[in-house]
C-alpha cells in the first residue's frame, strides 16, 4: 500500500510541476501581450491581427489548463489542450528553423530569449513526454474504473 | 478519442514542414557587408522538383531599397535557377531584414517569402546624434557619447564643427569610448551646425547635428 | 472534449478583458504601437504644429509629396537629417509617412528619429501616402 501511495504521490508531483510550468509560462506572456504578439508574428505564419488575438488569449488558456492540472478539475481537457499546444509550438519552431528564420520562441516570454533552438526543443520534448505520460495514466485509470 | 487527437496533432506537425514543388535551397540568406560596401546581394537558388513547369507571376520586395530579379519567367521540370535580391545599403545601420515575395502558379506553394538579412557593421555608435538648446536656455555644455565597436578599435577621435558658433571638446572616457562636449556661443538666436566626427586613421566620417532652436527653452 | 471546450471558453473571458485594457497600447491592424500612429484627420487637426516627413525614395518625393513635407530617407540619411533638423523645434509634432501600411520605411525613420536623435512626438501616418491622397479628394 505504501508503494501505491508513493507512486500516487509521484504522479501528483508531476501534475504540480507540469501545471506550474504552464502557469508560469502563461503569466510571463500575459504581462507582455504586445511583445508576445511580435514573437508570434515573427514566425510569419499568421496575419498580425490573428497574432494579436492569440497573444491575448493563449496565455490565459495556458494558465487555466495549468490550474486544471493542479486542482484536478477539468483535468483531461486541460491535459489535451496543453499537449496540442506543445505539439503545435514544437512544429512551428522546427518549421521556422527549417525556413531559416531567426526568432525567439516567446514561449517563456523574454526570459527565454537567449536560449538556443535545441534548448527550446529539448524542453518542449520533456514537457510533451510528461504530458503524454499523465494522459495515458489517466485514461488507463478511467478504463480500469469503467471495467470495475 | 486518443487516436484522433494524436492523428490531428501529428497532421499539424507534418503540415508545418511540408515542401513545395519549387524547392528552395534556402529561403533566408544572411549577409555581412563590409564597411565600405554600397550594396549587399543575396542569391536564392531553387529547383523545380515537380513534373510541371512553374511560372513566376510576380517577384516583389518589401522596400524600395531592395530590387529582386528572377533569371527566368518559367522553370521547366528539373531545371534550376535563382532569384537575386540586391539591397542598397545607403546610410542604413544595424541589422536590416527585407522580404522578397515570390508568387508562382505552383498549386502547392503559390507564395514564398524569401528573407534577406543584412548585418551592417557599425563602427561608431553616436548617442544622441542631435543636441539642441532652446532660445534663452542656460549656456551649458551638453554631451554626445561615442562608442567604437569591438571590431573597429579607435584610439583617437577628431571632431570638427561646420560653424564657429559651436565649440567642441573631445575626451576619452574608456576603451573605445569618447565624450564630446558641445557648447554654443550664445542661445539668443537660432543657429545650427553639423559636427563631423572622424576616427583617427579612418577615411569614414560620421555626423551629429547641434542647434539652438527657434522655440524658447522648455523645462 | 467537453472539458477542453469549457476551458477554451473560460479562457476567452480574461483574454477579452485584457484586450480591452490594452486597446490603446496595441494596433490590431499593424505592428506599430497604437500610440505611435496617427490618422490623416488627427495630423491635420494639429494644423501648423506638424512637420511632415517623407520617408520614400527621392524619386517618389520629387513626383509628389505632402505640401511642405521634408524628405528624410535611409538612402541619404546623413545628408538629409541636418536639413530636417533645421526645420524642427520642440513644440512641433513630426509625422512620418511612406507608401501605404505595409511599407517599413516610415517606421524605420521614426525609430531612428526617436532613438538616435532622441526626438519626442514622432508619429507614423496610418495608411501612409495613399491615405493622404484619399483625403485630398
Please tell me about this protein's structure.
The complex is a heterotrimer of chains A (148), B (219) and C (137). Chain A is mainly alpha-helical and 148 residues long. Chain A is 80% helix and 3% strand. About 4% of the residues of chain A have low confidence. Chain C has six helices and five strands. In chain C, helix 5 links the parallel strand 4 and strand 5. Helix content of chain C is 46%, strand content 13%. Chain C has one domain: Rhodanese-like domain (Oxidized Rhodanese, domain 1, 3-Layer(aba) Sandwich). Chains in contact: A-B, A-C, B-C. Chains B and C meet through strand 11 and strand 17 of B and helix 4 of C.
Topology:
The complex is a heterotrimer of chains A (148), B (219) and C (137).
Chain A: H1 2-31, H2 33-42, H3 48-71, H4 75-98, E1 107-110, H5 117-147
Chain B: H1 2-16, E1 22-24, E2 28-31, E3 39-48, E4 54-61, E5 66-70, E6 74-75, E7 80-88, E8 94-104, E9 111-120, E10 124-127, E11 130-135, E12 142-148, E13 157-161, E14 166-174, E15 177-184, E16 191-199, E17 206-216
Chain C: H1 2-21, E1 37-38, H2 40-45, E2 50-54, H3 58-63, E3 70-71, H4 77-87, E4 93-97, H5 105-115, E5 122-125, H6 128-136
Parallel strand pairs in C: 1-5, 2-3, 2-4, 4-5
Relative helix content of chain A: over 70%
Which strands sit side by side, in order, in the main sheet of chain B? 2-9-8-4-6
Greatest interface: B-C, 25 and 29 residues
What's the order of the H and E elements of chain B? Answer: HEEEEEEEEEEEEEEEEE
Largest sheet of chain B: 5 strands, mixed
| Estimated share of beta-strand residues of chain A | under 5%
Q: SS-based structural class of chain A?
A: mainly alpha
- State the shape of chain B: elongated
Low-confidence stretches of chain B: 1-20
- Helix content class of chain B: under 10%
Q: Please tell me the overall pLDDT of chain B.
A: 85
Q: How many angstroms does the end-to-end distance of chain A come to? A: 19 Å
What's the overall average pLDDT of chain A, rounded? 81
Amino acid at each position: 500500500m505504501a508503494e501505491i501511495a508513493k507512486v500516487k504521490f509521484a504522479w501528483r508531483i508531476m501534475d504540480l510541476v507540469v501545471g506550474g510550468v504552464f502557469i508560469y509560462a502563461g503569466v510571463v506572456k500575459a504581462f507582455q501581450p504586445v511583445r508576445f504578439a511580435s514573437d508570434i508574428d515573427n514566425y510569419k505564419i499568421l496575419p498580425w491581427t490573428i497574432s494579436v488575438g492569440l497573444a491575448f488569449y493563449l496565455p490565459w488558456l495556458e494558465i487555466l489548463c495549468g490550474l486544471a492540472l493542479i486542482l484536478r478539475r477539468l483535468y483531461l481537457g486541460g491535459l489535451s489542450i496543453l499537449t496540442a499546444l506543445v505539439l503545435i509550438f514544437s512544429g512551428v519552431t522546427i518549421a521556422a528553423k527549417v525556413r531559416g528564420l531567426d526568432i525567439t520562441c516567446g514561449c517563456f516570454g523574454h526570459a527565454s530569449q537567449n536560449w538556443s533552438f535545441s534548448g527550446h526543443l529539448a524542453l518542449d520534448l520533456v514537457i510533451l513526454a510528461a504530458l503524454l505520460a499523465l494522459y495515458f495514466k489517466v485514461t488507463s485509470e478511467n478504463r480500469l474504473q469503467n471495467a470495475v | 478519442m486518443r487516436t484522433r487527437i494524436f492523428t490531428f496533432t501529428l497532421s499539424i506537425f507534418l503540415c508545418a514542414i511540408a515542401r513545395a514543388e519549387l524547392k528552395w535551397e534556402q529561403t533566408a540568406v544572411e549577409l555581412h557587408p563590409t564597411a565600405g560596401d554600397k550594396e549587399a546581394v543575396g542569391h536564392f537558388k531553387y529547383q523545380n522538383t515537380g513534373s510541371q513547369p512553374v511560372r513566376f507571376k510576380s517577384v516583389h520586395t518589401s522596400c524600395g531599397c531592395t530590387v529582386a530579379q528572377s533569371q527566368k519567367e518559367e522553370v521547366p521540370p528539373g531545371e534550376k535557377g535563382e532569384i537575386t535580391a540586391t539591397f542598397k545599403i545607403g546610410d542604413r545601420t544595424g541589422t536590416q531584414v527585407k522580404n522578397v515575395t515570390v508568387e508562382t502558379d505552383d498549386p502547392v506553394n503559390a507564395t514564398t517569402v524569401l528573407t534577406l538579412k543584412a548585418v551592417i557593421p557599425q563602427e561608431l555608435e553616436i548617442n544622441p546624434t542631435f543636441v539642441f538648446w532652446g532660445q534663452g536656455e542656460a549656456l551649458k555644455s551638453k554631451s554626445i557619447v561615442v562608442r567604437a565597436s569591438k571590431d573597429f578599435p579607435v584610439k583617437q577621435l577628431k571632431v570638427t564643427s561646420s560653424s564657429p558658433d559651436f565649440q567642441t571638446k573631445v575626451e576619452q572616457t574608456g576603451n573605445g569610448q569618447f565624450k564630446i562636449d558641445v557648447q554654443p556661443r550664445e542661445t539668443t538666436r537660432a543657429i545650427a551646425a553639423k559636427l563631423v566626427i572622424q576616427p583617427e586613421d579612418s577615411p569614414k566620417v560620421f555626423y551629429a547635428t547641434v542647434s539652438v532652436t527657434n522655440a524658447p527653452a522648455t523645462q | 472534449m467537453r472539458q477542453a471546450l469549457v476551458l477554451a471558453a473560460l479562457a476567452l473571458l480574461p483574454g477579452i478583458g485584457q484586450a480591452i485594457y490594452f486597446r490603446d497600447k496595441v494596433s490590431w491592424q499593424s505592428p506599430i504601437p497604437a500610440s505611435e500612429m496617427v490618422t490623416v484627420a488627427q495630423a491635420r487637426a494639429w494644423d501648423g504644429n506638424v512637420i511632415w516627413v517623407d520617408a520614400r525614395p527621392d524619386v517618389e518625393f520629387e513626383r509628389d509629396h505632402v505640401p511642405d513635407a521634408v524628405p528624410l530617407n535611409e538612402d541619404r540619411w546623413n545628408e538629409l537629417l541636418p536639413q530636417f533638423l533645421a526645420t524642427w523645434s520642440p513644440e512641433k509634432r513630426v509625422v512620418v509617412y511612406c507608401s501605404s501600411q505595409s511599407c517599413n520605411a516610415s517606421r524605420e525613420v521614426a525609430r531612428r528619429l526617436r532613438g538616435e536623435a532622441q526626438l519626442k512626438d514622432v508619429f507614423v501616418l496610418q495608411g501612409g501616402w495613399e491615405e493622404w491622397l484619399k483625403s485630398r479628394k
